[in-house]
Amino acid sequence: MTRLTITLSEARYRALEEASVQRDKTIDQLIDQSLEFYGIKTREDAHDLVRRARSHSNLTEDQALAVAEEQVRVVRRKS
Question: Could you list the residue range(s) of the whole structural domain that residue 24 is in?
Answer without folding.
Answer: 1-37
